[in-house]
Amino acid sequence: MRYTPAGLPALSFRLEHESELLQEGVKRAVKVAIKAMAFGTLAERLSKQAIGSVWKFSGFLANARQGKSVVFHIQEFLQD
For 2-79, which CATH class? Predict the structure, then answer.
């Protein structure tokens, strides 16, 4: 975890998702990884969670500062 110049806790991490679903009657494997960020007390709570644990996240997508990738900004999370 790092702190912003204003002293706000900030956590940068990577979320990974893996599942299977049916698409047009054919089983399809879905696998994705995305950069994510959380700030404030949410960042502190997330930093205490076990790596590899399962959660549901909500938030929004935005371009990274350099505009070369997408970052998921976490606004809430619940254990799945």
Answer: mainly beta
